[in-house]
Every structure is written in structure tokens, then in C-alpha cells.
Design goal:
Tetracycline Repressor, domain 2; 9 helices; single chain
């Protein structure tokens, strides 16, 4: 890759990193090409050297947000020793104040599920496999598909609702109630059969 191509790739990465954080904080519809390009120190006109359209940018930003959110969750769990505590550790990390208070760095599913639910089929097709992986991870921990769907739905919903609440105590109560319930579900789970 030539120097200019490498620079272009790095610039695209910067744009996508900013767009990813922006949509997780403010939603898909908040993405303004002008504001985004200004945030990364580029001109509005330079945008079209990287993306075919705003819709293309939104799709790529959603992909980036989903990847970033998953990577940040893994890093957070590893740093906090949560990985060693398995699914319960993941639940504690996911339903924490730190995660709630950092939507720009957190789970894109929790931040964008309602936006993507109203978006076009292409956007839903980007998020759906991530939701399925999340459910599968929960199924492996809980030993039951229905319990996994309930757990994932409760966790994503609790994160979203906790961000809505203006009373910090009520917000914390939502996180705590769902966290404790899902961890109890995991403790009561029957092990999966071999194979």
C-alpha cells in the first residue's frame, strides 16, 4: 500500500472511530457528515473520498460500533478479572455504572437496539448476527435457549432503561435488580450436555 493509500486508510479509521462513538452516544440519526468531519479535522468535501453516501457511512459506523463495543467489553472484562468469573462476571460488567455511563464506548446493541429496530433491513442485518451470538453465549452459560433469550433481553433492556432514568438511585436499582436476577439464573442453570 502506497503512502497516500495508507494515509487514506488511517483517515477512514479515524472517521469511523469518531462516527462509531457518536452513534453510540447519540443514535444513528444524529450522525451529521459536517459535524463528523469537523470533529476529525477534515473538510466536508473530503467525506466523499471515503464513503459513497451518508447511508454508507451509517452502515460502516454501525459495523464499527458493534466491533468496538464487543472489543471494549472483552478488554473491560479482562482488566477487571471478570473473564475468570465467566458469565456472571460478564453480567456484572455489562450491568454496571461504568458501562451505563459510557455509551460511546460500550455495547452498541444496548445503545442502538431501538434505532436499528427502526432502521432499514441492511442495518438490522448487521446487528442481528451479533444479537444471535450474544444469545448463544448466554445459552451456553444458562443451558436453555428460552432462558438465554430472557437474560439477553433483560440485560439490554435494563441497560437502556438505566440510561433513561434521571434519578441515579433508580437507575442503579434497575441495573442491580436485573444483574442479580440474571446471575441467579446462571447459578441455577443445569450444565449443558456434552457435545
Amino acid at each position: 500500500m502506497g503512502h497516500s493509500q495508507a494515509d487514506k486508510a488511517l483517515t477512514r479509521e479515524r472517521i469511523l472511530a469518531e462516527a462509531s462513538a457518536q452513534i453510540r452516544k447519540e443514535g444513528l440519526e444524529s450522525l451529521s457528515v459536517g459535524r463528523l468531519m469537523q470533529a476529525v479535522g477534515l473538510t466536508h468535501g473530503g467525506f466523499y473520498g471515503h464513503f459513497a453516501s451518508r447511508e454508507d457511512l451509517v452502515a460502516r459506523a454501525l459495523e464499527q460500533a458493534l466491533s468496538d463495543g464487543a472489543a471494549n467489553a472483552r478488554a473491560s472484562a479482562a482488566a477487571g478479572g471478570e473473564r475468570a468469573r465467566g458469565f456472571a462476571g460478564f453480567v456484572r460488567s455489562y450491568l454496571s455504572r461504568a458501562h451505563r455511563d459510557a455509551p460511546g464506548r460500550g455495547c452498541a446493541i444496548g445503545a442502538l437496539v431501538c434505532d436499528v429496530g427502526r432502521a432499514d433491513e441492511a442495518a438490522r442485518a448487521l446487528m442481528a448476527p451479533r444479537v444471535e451470538r450474544y444469545i448463544e453465549t448466554a445459552r451456553q452459560a444458562l443451558g436453555d435457549e428460552t432462558e438465554a433469550i430472557v437474560a439477553v433481553s433483560a440485560m439490554v433492556g435494563a441497560l437502556a432503561l438505566s440510561r433513561v432514568m434521571t434519578d441515579p438511585k433508580r437507575s442503579d436499582a434497575i441495573l442491580r435488580a436485573v444483574r442479580d436476577h440474571v446471575i441467579a439464573m446462571a447459578a441455577e442453570a443445569k450444565p449443558l450436555p456434552p457435545g
